[in-house]
Amino acid sequence: MIASELLLIAVSADPKKNQLLAALPDTEWARWLPQLEWVDLPLGQVLYESGSTLSHVYFPTTAIISLLHVLENGSSAEIAVVGHEGLVGISLFMGGESTPSRAVVQSAGKGLRLPAQAIKDEFKRAPVLHLLLRYTQALITQMSQTAVCNRHHTLDQQLCRWLLLSLDRLQGSELVMTQELISNMLGVRREGVTEAALQLQASGLIRYARGRISVLDRPGLERRTCECYGVVKKEYDRLLPEKTAA
What's the half-sphere exposure (Cβ side, CA atoms, 13 Å) at 64? Predict the structure, then answer.
């Protein structure tokens, strides 16, 4: 096995690649570690459905999870993305056993999960309480801004915002993503996603082929997107601990 592959395995197997886990005080970390379980998170896997009872909370390390609001007719639209900065399953410590959203793996990778009862018990302890509430505030900002963005900004701007938020949660600059999944995230037709992606490609910002999106010009994407990306990023940077060094 070559050195780069060994390094990738070592990085993906480090639980403290998740920012919330890395920020835990030593006492809490020692108590959590025996209960944390590594899980593979393949592309398209549903972690929970709308209205279902949550059995675990998930802490992605190299995967990205999309939270989608699902309508009665089965259509859906993304309301937030979660990566190595956070966790999936905030309803468990916000007073509910279920949530109206669906959680789907947007970018394959790994993560850890903690049993529902364990997070409920831990939430009674002050240090973890403040950390998870700050994360929840940042996530709610992302959800609110996404709703505004989907209502008032162009598909081109929405796609740029979505790409930038996804990049913030990945190690590299390439996303593996089908047109169908992107259309589900943004709540638009596949043809609209194709047209918007081709426009970004024609502008030299991305390369899009065979379900892979490579970002070639991130500053260009930031100039092209709406203010929504900046609002969300500023709130995450303000509320959450700084990223740990690789």
Answer: 24
pTM: 0.79
Tokens of 189: 């037709």
Looking from the CA of 130 toward its CB, the CA atoms found within 13 Å total: 8
Tokens of 190: 């596949």
In this structure, are residues 33 and 61 in contact, taking their beta carbons and an 8 Å threshold? no
Whole-number Å distance between alpha carbons of 241 and 152: 31
Q: Are the C-beta atoms of residues 213 and 173 closer than 8 Å to each other?
A: no
Which of helix, strand or coil describes residue 15? helix
CA 43 to chain centre: 13
Q: At what angle do helices 228-239 and 155-167 cross, to 10 degrees?
A: 20
Q: For the chain, which domains are there? A: 3-125 (2.60.120.10)
CA pair distance 185, 155, nearest whole angstrom: 12
How many Cα atoms sit within 13 Å of 87 on the Cβ side?
Answer: 31
Listed in sequence order, the residues at least 6 apart from 56 whose beta carbon sits closer than 8 Å to its beta carbon are: 89, 113, 114, 115, 116
pLDDT digits (tens, 9 = 90+) for 188-209: 888 888 899 989 999 999 998 8
Q: Packing angle between helix 155-167 and helix 126-152, nearest 10 degrees?
A: 160
Tokens of 219: 């500053």
Look up residue 43 and give its two tokens.
Answer: 């592309």
